[in-house]
Amino acid sequence: MKQSLGAGLFNAANTVVLILIGLVTLFPLYYVFIVSFTDAQEYLEKNGFVLFPHRWSLASYKYLFSTSAFINATGVSAFLAIVGTGLSLMITSAISFGLSRKRLRGRRAMMMGIVVTLLFSPGIIPPYLLVRELGLINSVWSLIIPVLTSGWYVLLMKSFFDNIPAELEEAAMIDGSSDLGTFFRIVLPLSAPALAAFGLFYAVAYWNTFFSAVLYINDFAKFPLQVVLRNMIVNSDTSTGGAAAVEMMSEQQLPTQTIKMAAVVISTLPILCVYPFLQKHFTKGVMLGSVKG
Q1: Which residues cross the membrane (predicted)?
Q2: Both 27 and 153 in a single domain?
Q3: Looking at residue 56, what DSSP letter applies?
């Protein structure tokens, strides 16, 4: 159909506005990336504003990976993302599958308990007291166990399991399969979209762990990457390892700004690399519970 002049102008204006918004959104990411690869001398010569460097350098990245503090922080964040995501998916899928079976006793009461957790938040003090009583203060497990699952994710995954035909489970039981066998051999393989979507959600959350680490971790060597990055950027908080970050950056001859930008790129890159591999399943998983039929 032929568009009217007004509709054409409107579409053109929308395109221009969206392009401008996209440029404004992407420019900070581009600037961080460019500065992280800029040669130290060129960065100082241009007073810290570089749109495209003439001399590229990996010095900031080499320096970061030569420091034990940054390597330890990267290892902690990787442990949280890998182990935490695996445990969270296991717990969330098991609870959701159980709740999706109508023959489960006390199913309604459990559902109400999960809904209550969505409506009322306990705040900061009760979780801290619980972590302290469990003896998890200053342990990386304090960043995993209290957040192993989410009531909202349980309800969403339950809606996915509700759409799996009950006849499949009945056929497996006739063939002699146990409940665990049915869960691992039939249900989980059919749940790849849901597992990929929630796996990405959990991985991002664990990789970006910050506030709980500030509350529960006292040892600078056990800080995850986001806390170390924050201390490097703020460069002043001595109570959470800021002094160690200052000392770490003052022992080299590189501009601190290029080191900070390199740290930001490293902390962002893993999630950006994982997302394309999960995109096919992710686009299906985000539609969980949206269509009933």
Answers
A1: 12-34, 70-97, 109-130, 136-156, 183-207, 258-278
A2: no
A3: B
* Angular region, 139: left φ>0, alpha ψ -120 to 50, beta rest: beta
pTM over 0.85: no
CA nearest neighbour of 218 among 153, 108, 142: 142
Cβ atoms within 10 A of the Cβ of 191, count?
22
Helix (H, G, I), strand (E, B) or coil at 38: strand
Which runs of consecutive H residues, i.e. helices, occur in the chain?
5-36, 40-45, 59-64, 68-79, 85-100, 107-119, 125-133, 151-162, 166-174, 179-182, 188-190, 192-207, 211-216, 225-234, 242-250, 256-285
Q: What CATH number is attached to the domain comprising 151? A: 1.10.3720.10
Which 8-state DSSP code applies to residue 209? -
| Residue 290, domain member (yes or no) | no
Q: For 117-160, write each residue's pLDDT tens digit.
A: 888 888 888 889 989 998 889 999 999 998 898 888 888 888 88
In a domain, 293, yes or no: no
Domain that holds residue 42: 5-59
* Structure-token pair, residue 263: 């740290």
In terms of domains, do 112 and 173 share one?
yes
Give the contacts of 282 (CB within 8 A, at least 6 positions apart).
Answer: 193, 196, 197, 200, 275
